[in-house]
Amino acid sequence: MRAFLIDDSSGSFERGVREVEPSPRDPGDVLVRVEYSGVNYKDAMVAVASSRVRRVPRVVGGVDAAGLVIHPGASRLLEGQRVAVHGGDLGVGRDGGFAEFVYAPAHWLSALPDTLSTRDAMVIGTAGVAAMASVLALEDHGLGDGEVLVTGATGGVGSLAVSLLAARGHTPVASTGSLDAHAWLLERGARSVIGRDEIADRPDRVLASERWAGAIDCVGGATLHQILRSLRYGGAVAASGLVAGTDLATTIYPFITRSISLLGIDVVEARPATRDRVWAALGDAASSVDFASLIDRDVPLEQLEDALDAVVHGTTRGRILVDPSAR
Ligand SMILES: NC(=O)c1ccc[n+]([C@@H]2O[C@H](COP(=O)([O-])OP(=O)(O)OC[C@H]3O[C@@H](n4cnc5c(N)ncnc54)[C@H](OP(=O)(O)O)[C@@H]3O)[C@@H](O)[C@H]2O)c1
Question: Which of 198, 242, 245, 279 lies in disulfide reach of 221, CB 3.0 to 4.6 Å?
């Protein structure tokens, strides 16, 4: 099969389209014919020389994919069933979705709701699963009326979070560094759009004014600190990402004087019941979210290098879809 192979095994780093034989790691693995994959920030971190994210020297990239079941393996899935596959070390430590076929263990697969096509599923992708998991975490915590901040709003997690919050009746405010994206974000459902530096006021004080009823943050670093100091009493931030950095320098004050919460979001090792709940909620949102409007562009495997660079440089707007059968 054709696949986008990352190879750091022979001393000289290479990445590109190669012929690769698909092979299961376990006899019970499910074989899926990939119809679409998507480009994630993590994919870009895997596809570089001496990557600290990649777990093996040689791997087919792609942390998520959607397609049709060819061999159900040990799963209860049916041949021909539409599925999304993501999680574990897919595309990081074992061959992933940037290929015509992918093998994965049953618990990394979710049957798609009738309302979602495989193309919709990869517009959503791991990023959209993280976005919906963040929305559900905020709702479970108790999200009252009020503005909900979304950072990195033009990216995969952020743009889906804006649309999903709006679809579920919340009031998303999009924070972005992309000055030309305001109209696009308003069309996606943002109530208003602010710059990256406008999240919190009173830089000279420990705490900022109480503003956000909740927040969905995929940026981390100093951005997360600004969110924590500007959440309203009892508010929460669902934190899933680290594009601005891994360190968090903050104070205990908003936790003990405003009773705020920091909710960690992980969809990589999420349990099957959690995945099913998130995919069901995504299926419910399909009637009110125009997933096609969240596509940055479609690329064949041959154009993946440019797409990975675009994600690193933050020049994407929504999701880049990969069609492994296109040339
Ligand atoms: N926890 C999980 O299970 C999970 C799942 C999926 C993704 N993630 C993580 O979530 C993060 C976002 O993933 P993604 O796929 O949405 O990435 P993405 O499509 O590249 O979007 C990230 C967005 O962040 C903003 N940004 C980029 N560099 C920035 C910087 N230096 N400072 C502030 N903002 C910056 C940009 O938006 P603006 O231009 O609009 O500001 C960019 O579009 C990544 O860290 C990823 O690993 C975690």
Answer: 245
Neighbours of 167 (CB within 10 A): 19
Q: What is the C-alpha separation between 208 and 211, in angstroms, rounded?
A: 8
Output the CA angle 316-322-325, nearest 5 degrees: 155
| Ligand 1 probe mutation, 243, 268, 297, 317, most atoms within 8 A of CB | 243
Domains in the chain and their CATH numbers? Answer: 2-123+271-322 (3.90.180.10), 128-264 (3.40.50.720)
Q: For 131-153, what is each residue's pLDDT tens digit?
A: 999 999 999 999 988 999 999 99
The Å distance, Cα 27 to ligand 1 centre, comes to: 36
Q: Compute the distance between CA of residue 306 and CA of residue 296 in angstroms, rounded to an integer.
A: 13
In the chain, DSSP finds a helix count (H) and a strand count (E) of 8, 16
pTM for the whole thing?
0.94
Distance between CA 274 and CA 291 in Å, rounded? 22
Asked if 36 and 323 count as a contact pair (C-beta separation under 8 A), the reply is: yes
Q: In what order do the strands lie in the sheet with 2-7?
A: 14-19, 2-7, 58-60
160 by DSSP, 3-state: which?
Answer: helix
Task: Output the CA 216–ligand 1 centroid distance in Å.
Answer: 11
- Give the residue from 318, 289, 39, 281 showing the smallest Cα distance to 185: 318
Q: What is the pLDDT of residues 40-75, one digit of tens each?
A: 999 999 999 999 999 999 999 999 999 999 999 999
